[in-house]
Amino acid sequence: MKYGIVLFPSKRIQDFANSYRKRYDSHYALIPPHLTLKEPFEADDQQIQEMVKELRKIAAETDVIPLTVTKFSSFYPASNVIYLKVEPNEPLQHLYERLHSGIFAAEPEYVFVPHITIGRDLPSAEYADVYGQLRMQNVHFVETVDRFHLLYQLENGSWTVYETFHLGGKEQE
Fold first, then answer.
1. d(CA 127, CA 137)
2. 172 occurs within a structural domain
3. CA distances from 3 to 108, 118, 167 (A)
4. Is 138 among the domain residues?
5. Residue 123, in any domain of the structure
6. Could you say which DSSP state residue 157 is in?
7. Residues with active-site annotation
8. CATH number (domain holding residue 92)
9. Where does this chain carry the motif HXTX 1 (predicted)?
10. Does residue 80 sit within a domain?
11. What confidence tens digit (pLDDT) does each residue in 59-103 have?
């Protein structure tokens, strides 16, 4: 089965992202707005049980994560993906690194750029028009995320939560 690990931002940020995703993101119906921590990977039932134990440990040892969303950005020219930029920070980077070491060790396909995708699979002319308009907008959200999620993919391509892991940072005590 295919799994992935993500952070879901608050409803406020999800609503903002979805106001664009419903028009510009071909994956709109498959998964809510999210920040990918670990790209999709295959695991069998035994492997996933071991991973869940390790994810619980990682969550208990990880502080809550500040999320600051600052602007629209793009991966152009590598791809016509438009996203909400999430400012990198040490707790987020630390969690990402933990999810790519030990039993999760795998060389990531891309450099970690924290983001929430709002547009993909756009023809070049539409991409240029949409991105040209969006990049002029002011965007500013600040919040704290206290959990991450292990998702699995259903046969129809959509993703659903397998388990949620609460971060055990000092602010939860």
1. 16
2. no
3. 15, 21, 20
4. yes
5. yes
6. S
7. 34, 115
8. 3.90.1140.10
9. 34-37
10. yes
11. 999 999 999 999 999 999 999 999 999 999 999 999 999 999 999
Q: Which range marks the domain in which residue 161 is found?
A: 2-165
Q: How many residues does the chain have?
A: 173
Q: Cα(12)–Cα(5) distance, rounded to whole angstroms?
A: 21
Quickly tell me which residue has 């129809």 as its tokens: 156
Residues of the chain with pLDDT under 70: 169-173
Residue 88 CA neighbour count, 13 Å, CB half: 8
Sheet strands (E) in 27-79: 35-42, 65-74
Of 45, 18, 43, 37, the closest CA to residue 29 belongs to: 18
The CA distance from 129 to 82, in Å, is: 12
Cis bond before residue 77 (omega within 30° of 0): yes
Total domains present in the chain = 1
CA dihedral 17→119→55→11, nearest 10 degrees, is 10
Place of tokens 């152009």: 76
